[in-house]
Write a structure and sequence with these properties.
heterodimer, A: 575 residues, alpha/beta, Rossmann fold, 3 domains, 5-stranded parallel sheet, 4-stranded antiparallel sheet, 17 helices, 62% helix, elongated, B: ABC transporter transmembrane region fold, 2 domains, 6-stranded mixed sheet, 21 helices
């Protein structure tokens, strides 16, 4: 991985500012390091030569000034680094959110569209918050050190060469050895670790596995025996890890050894030449004080490498996500939305040989569907899981576009129009959708119900809730309709969530209703309440109900009901 | 190795101790190894400081042009220190990591033993909590390697360096002591204290942002379908702006510690120089001592360099410790004999051991069973009576929260009844060791776990060492044999967390095969269809009822699938049995059962 991602510099303006500040700070700090070394050597030599406070006093004062300036510089650098980190994180986060939500393409049903390797919602959230936080460390610790490690060793080397070229050569020879050795050892370690990784992660994951399965173990009277196995696996894990660490620590060992040994060599060599009278005391001290400074930044960069790479890895993930094609709608430019619900939603709908293949997947999710839905009709669409029922709904919601065939709509009294000619937003405004697992937001019950009709007043919300058999339990909540529902509506049971979703659909008051197995996961009692609510929702509206079996027919009975069966594709293709 | 002390009797004083200290206490059996690690670490850090001190002495001496013999010891020492730093650092890391991994292995066993005794299932049902607990356990490693050793090393090396400088020149030693204490102790503590406010503010802002983001991404279909996406994205941007504002405002506070560390280091060196030059002028010390004093002081701040990172880490480690000990301190929910019960222990001989009759006509008899999860809690089971006769299949149905699973956990001996009596094979189960009950009663717990291992290992769990033929027979009964035969590796296929993922239906069938293999008298099947889609549900229940023929079976469920095939149905609601009878009987009488099954 590159220590500085060029995409990061290109995209985030905050990074460019930060880089400039850091380089300027690095140059200043280098100057201060050199000044302090020279002053210390000069004062110690002066005292040895018998100079008094009158001569040395101002120089000692300068040492204090250097210390103050350096402290101030550290403070400013750290503060500005945190500033830049905050800004960069914000810039990346905003781009990520706009990119992910902006395409209008969303994934229905968990895992539905995820075959392209895109991360799941949970991973994206972690990436956008905790993941990006690793950039703090990168900005405030790593980047400044990286800059220093480029400037300080060169500056020190130049000064040492000027002062004493023999010591300069010692440093010049050993300094490049450090990155070379680290790289060599690093590569070797990488190979070893990669080979060991599977074993290590299996041994490391064993404990989690066992704790998760404790109940199962207990049922089969194996819980007690497992304690001994945990001890054994822990021991194996330790041995395997130590085997890897013995190699992994070699890199740090080489760095430490080279850096210290080089300083020791310089010290001995200047000491002996000082003794022989080939060098003066002040120069010898200057070289001795400066020599460790040449190695220090390299060591610091090495020590911070791993922690900071998390930040870089997070940024890298963001860029991968930004570059990922989130699907594109048809080539034809979409007509602009009018802001009104499309009248077509209250009319007829026709599917001709419609098929859908998710990008990157071989088998189509849906193929050759012919259907006509007349205004006011209730279509019960049955089929086993995997037959494409949910995909069909996503086409009707225009969350996806068919890859084969065409869909057309006809407003009451109008002519057949291709689906694409109806603005997406207008079309959706005429739909009330109740998915299998409706999502409730961490806002009040009222706002959840009027999600699709923000202008609805409290009376309308309550009426919708009453019709959805939800008014009773909503009133029983601590703050009634003002109760916040918690993350994903955690406060409510599945049946209650389903009824809120039905209230949402009723509140939307749209002519076309799309229902996706609304009782599949409910206990019988809740299912009965949901069926009552559904019957009310369907009154006077066109509807497509997707379900696994025809059990639904009884609850939505009426003259308008028509059923169609969607067989598994594999069954259909078979001769 | 001796068994860990019984933590059932962890006394109150121990509980009140700082979780950090208690975590460190876990490492006590390895204290010799850790001490060695600290000594090696001190040698490494000390080598670095000593190198500059010795070199300064060497130069200061050489400046007076003595004979070469005066320098020979210093030359050798300098070279030796140049090598010893790297070597001892390497050894220190190996020794402390080794000791920490040894400790971790032991802590895992201890946590496990406690969990196995505590009926953690009510509290740790969600996988999230389990993985957090496991992470908390692994934090021990972090504490010991990065939290414990560096401060001890600093204390040892810092003390030695201060002592040495005090010998050279007393005020110089005191000055360094002050500088090190400020940079190594005061600044990290200050940073931790100052960081608490910003940390809290930032965590709050981050919490809002991530909740909004979760809503946006996971609720995306609902938002798009209802035309509310733009509004929601605006909310995310607002939360992001707030977080950025908070972070930028607090940057000024967080930068302070970096500034102070640099200030203390620089000013201590300045102080050493000033004191030293004055002392040389006064004749209190020689110029050689001055060089040693200043350069040692300069090098000494390396000793405290790792400490700010340690201080920053301790907060989260302490939080982990608190959660960890919160679990270790929980009293077990089984009063009677439990995991550690040895049937030959003195306890069994004192009381008359109840005899389990393996051929009892009614293997399970429940009378007036009452259970609640706390003195203030409502009754989860409030006077339940039922019997499972030999070879009979009994179903318990009811809405979620009706107490069905509590019944299963009492029968499987995960918790004690709070009232009433439960007999297994004619004996009161509270008097029986858990594993003895589970000889008779076993089955499929809610959310059965598939271990990250082979299919064979996962099955053999139920009957260790049994032949492959028996495994295949069990797979056939659970209708899984065909699928396993189709796998290229057959029984050697790796499944679970690191292997092949199994579908929900396959997991249930595997769990069923396991239960069949264990061959208990009574099979308890707790919500075997909870997470299955309707397709699979019907098939699994049908196969389940086929496979359990010949067993006494208790089927716990929330839906009506397959209930026409069971011998007896009990409808449970709010902890009570509402209705009992066969499918036909229940349909013929008015009540809950008929209401919910009527379409």
């Amino acid at each position: 991985m590159k220590p500085l991602d060029p995409r990061l510099v290109r995209t985030a303006s905050a990074v460019r500012v930060h880089l400039a500040v850091t380089v300027a700070g690095g140059v200043l700090i280098t100057g201060l390091i050199l000044a302090q070394a020279w002053l210390l050597a000069r004062v110690i030599t002066g005292a040895w030569a018998g100079e008094g406070m009158d001569v040395l006093g101002p120089m000692i004062g300068l040492v204090a000034a250097v210390a103050l300036t350096r402290a101030l510089l550290s403070y400013v650098a750290e503060t500005s680094a945190l500033h830049s980190a905050a800004r960069t994180k914000s810039q990346l986060r905003r781009r990520l959110v706009s990119h992910v939500t902006g395409s209008g393409r969303v994934w229905l049903a968990d895992g539905g569209d995820r075959e392209d390797g895109a991360p799941r919602a949970g991973e994206l959230v972690t990436l956008a918050t905790r993941g990006l936080d690793a950039l703090d460390e990168y900005f405030s610790r790593y980047l400044p050190q990286l800059v220093l490690s480029a400037i300080v060793p060169l500056a020190v080397l130049a000064v040492v060469f000027w002062a004493d070229w023999i010591s300069g050569i010692v440093i010049l020879v050993t300094l490049p050895l450090i990155p070379v050795f680290m790289a060599l050892i690093g590569m070797h370690t990488q190979q070893r670790t990669d080979r060991q990784w599977k074993l290590l992660s299996r041994l490391g994951g064993h404990f989690l596995d066992v704790v998760e399965g404790l109940q199962t173990l207990a049922v089969f009277r194996r819980a007690k025996a497992q304690a001994a196995i945990i001890r054994q696996v822990g021991e194996d894990h330790r041995k395997a890890t130590m085997g890897t660490l013995r190699i992994a620590f070699l890199s740090a060992f080489a760095l430490e050894l080279l850096a210290t040994l080089a300083v020791a060599l310089v010290a001995v060599e200047v000491g002996l030449r000082l003794l022989g009278g080939h060098m003066d005391y002040q120069t010898a001290l200057l070289v001795l004080i400066l020599a460790p400074e040449a190695y220090l930044p390299l060591r610091e960069v090495g020590a911070r490498f791993h922690a900071s790479m998390e930040g870089i890895a997070a940024a890298d993930q963001v860029f991968t996500e930004l570059e990922r094609e989130r699907g594109h709608d048809s080539d034809r430019p979409a007509p602009p939305p009018t802001g009104e619900a499309s009248p077509a939603a209250g009319g007829d709908l026709r599917l001709e040989a419609v098929g859908m293949r998710h990008p990157g997947r071989d088998a189509p999710a849906l193929a050759g569907v012919d259907l006509t839905l007349h205004a006011g009709e209730h279509l019960l669409l049955t089929g086993p899981s995997g037959s494409g029922k949910t995909t069909l709904l996503s086409l009707l919601l225009r969350l996806n576009t068919p890859t084969e065939g065409r869909i057309s709509v006809r407003a009451p009294g109008g002519a057949w129009t291709p689906f694409e000619d109806v603005p997406v937003e207008d079309w959706r405004a005429g739909i009330a959708w109740v998915p299998q697992h409706p999502y409730l937001f961490d806002v009040s019950v009222t706002d959840n119900i009027r999600l699709g009709a923000p202008e609805a007043d409290l009376a309308r919300v309550r009426e919708a809730a009453r019709l959805a058999e939800a008014d009773g339990f909503i009133r029983a909540l601590p703050q009634g309709y003002d109760t916040r529902l918690g993350e994903r509506g955690a406060r409510l049971s599945a049946g209650q969530r389903q009824r809120i979703a039905l209230a949402r659909a009723l509140c939307r008051d749209a002519p076309l209703v799309l229902l996706d197995e609304p009782t599949a996961h409910l206990d019988p009692e809740n299912a009965a309440a949901v069926r009552t609510a559904v019957a009310r929702l369907l009154e006077g509206r066109t509807a497509v109900i997707v379900a696994h079996d025809t059990g639904w027919a009884a609850s939505v009975s009426g003259t308008h009901l028509r059923t169609a069966h969607l067989p598994l594709l594999s069954e259909r293709v078979a001769p | 190795m001796s068994a860990p002390p019984t933590d059932v009797a962890v006394d109150a004083r121990e509980r009140r101790r700082d979780p950090l200290l208690r975590m460190i206490g876990l490492a006590r059996p390895r204290s010799a190894r850790f001490a060695l690690g600290v000594l090696l670490g001190a040698a490494a850090t000390g080598s670095g400081v000593a190198l500059l001190g010795v070199a300064a002495w060497m130069l200061a001496t050489a400046a007076n042009h003595p004979s070469i013999t005066a320098l020979s010891v210093a030359v050798v020492a300098t070279r030796a220190l140049g090598v010893s730093k790297g070597v001892t650092r390497y050894l220190e890391r190996l020794v402390t990591h080794d000791a920490a991994f040894r400790t971790l292995a032991q802590v895992r066993v201890r946590v496990y033993e406690r969990l196995a005794r505590t009926e953690p299932f009510g509290r740790f049902r969600s996988g999230d909590l389990v993985s957090r607990l496991v992470n908390d356990t692994e934090t021990t490693l972090d504490l010991l390697v990065r939290g414990l050793t560096p401060p001890l090393v600093s204390v040892v090396t810092g003390g030695a360096t201060v002592l040495f400088l005090t010998v050279v020149y007393v005020p110089g030693g005191l000055l360094l002591a002050g500088g090190l204490l400020l940079a190594g102790l005061a600044v990290p503590l200050m940073a931790a204290a100052l960081g608490r406010g910003p940390g809290r503010r930032e965590a709050a802002a981050r919490g809002v942002l991530s909740t909004t983001l979760v809503d946006t991404l996971q609720g995306a279909p609902d938002l798009v379908a209802y035309g509310a996406m733009d509004q929601q994205v605006a909310r995310v941007m607002e939360a992001d702006a707030e977080l950025t504002r908070v972070a930028r405002r607090d940057a000024a506070t967080l930068g302070l510690s970096a500034g102070f560390t640099a200030l203390i280091t620089g000013m201590t060196v300045w102080g050493a120089l000033f004191l030293g030059v004055t002392a040389v002028e006064d004749g209190a010390i020689g110029p050689t001592a001055l060089a040693v004093l200043v350069l040692t002081t300069l090098a000494a701040f390396e000793i405290v360099a790792p400490l700010p990172a340690v201080a920053a880490r301790l907060g989260s480690i302490r939080a982990s410790g608190e959660r960890l000990f919160g679990i270790l301190d929980t009293p077990p929910s089984l009063a009677g004999p439990s995991l550690d019960e040895d049937p030959h222990r003195e306890g069994s001989s004192e009381r008359e051991a109840p005899v389990v009759d393996p051929d009892a006509a009614v293997p399970v008899r429940v009378r007036d069973l009452r259970v609640r999860y706390g003195p203030e809690e409502p009754w989860a089971l409030d006077g339940v009576d039922l019997e499972i006769a030999a070879g009979e299949t009994v179903a318990v149905i009811g809405p979620s929260g009706a107490g069905k699973s509590t019944l299963a956990s009492v029968l499987l001996r995960f918790r004690d009844p709070d009232g009433g009596r439960v007999e297994v094979g004619g004996a009161d189960i509270t008097a029986l060791p858990a594993d003895e009950v589970r000889c008779v009663v076993s089955g499929v717990p809610q959310d059965p776990h598939v271990f990250g291992s082979t299919l064979r290992e996962n099955l053999r769990l139920a009957r260790p060492g049994c032949s492959d033929d028996a495994l295949w027979e069990a797979l056939r009964r659970a209708r899984l044999a065909g699928e396993v035969e189709a796998m290229p590796l057959g029984l050697d296929t790796r499944v679970g967390s690191h292997g092949l993922g199994l579908s929900g239906g396959m997991v249930q069938r595997l769990a069923l095969a396991r239960a069949v293999l264990a061959a208990p008298r009574v099979l308890v099947l707790d919500e075997p269809t909870a997470h299955l889609d309707p397709d699979t549900r019907d098939a699994v229940v049908a196969d389940l009822l086929d496979a359990t023929e010949g067993f006494s079976t208790l089927l716990i469920t929330h839906d009506l699938t397959g209930l026409d095939r069971v011998d007896r149905i009990h409808v449970v609601r709010d902890g009570r049995v509402l209705q009992s009878g066969t499918h036909a009987e229940l349909l013929s009488e008015p009540g809950w059962y008929r209401t919910v099954s009527g379409r």
